[in-house]
Design brief:
The protein is an all-alpha fold. The protein has 2 domains: 85 residues, no CATH class; 176 residues. It contains 14 helices and no strands. The longest helix is centred in the C-terminal third of the chain and has 35 residues. The two termini are 46 Å apart.
Amino acid sequence: MDRDSRPKRAAGSSSRDGRRAEEQRNHDGLPGGPLTNVAERLVTANPRDTARDLGSFKSAERQMRRAVQDVAPGQESDLGRFDRRNNQLGRAANDLVDRLTAGLGFNSDDVALFQVQAASNVGHFLGPQKQTALVNRIGNMDPMEQALGVMFVAQNFSKFNDQNKSRIFEQAIELAADPHQHHMVKVTAQNAIVTAYHQLDANQQAQANSLPDLHGLLQNMPPPRHAAEERSVNLDDRIAGIAASVRDTVGPQTSHEQLRRGGQVGQSISQAYNHAREDLMAASRSRDRSGR
């Protein structure tokens, strides 16, 4: 009796072991595995939120970390490559902003405008505190400089969190609607609103349309077209070069020229993130087409 039952138990055990092995392969970060697909959906246009969400995903358990990091031992997955690049860019962006904004609260409005403009290029890499410091500094400026400040950050409006977007818009609409402000202050603030218009929420757009000088323009304004960004042949080399540029561009004595160059480095960081994300999306589409 016992001898007859042993093969059956062995066969059942073998079947279960096979299923477990298959499940393990699916969850260990192989291309197209369920956890890898879930992790890739955490990647958005916001690099800071993406880094946070992938970090939380990886910390949940070992299988999820493998889904992000590894295809196989010693090989880097597409998502792992993106995660590494994003973390490198995030460190470079925050280092750049720390250098660019040194003395922000004590410098003249003229210098602070250059600092805010340059730092806003990587606003989407910054935490709420650093974003708020930029917006606060604009709010403490004289009206003409304040209008210029909101116009500068309006060019990167989508890179700020919702709270700071609201505060930027509130500063702009207050200046634009104030009948006692100088004409140039109002026009500059109105230009900021026009620049950010398609990224405003419905309530903000309604407020913008209530301005007599803007109503007709905003009603017929098409969405902006984004110019194609020049791609680097080797994105990893470019990212390494960006990190070096951060160290070399901005020193302890920051000039207007250094701030201008720092702003260009910030643009390069933002573009490199876009390209890293495009590479990941292209790899994901390729896997979908091949059925893996």
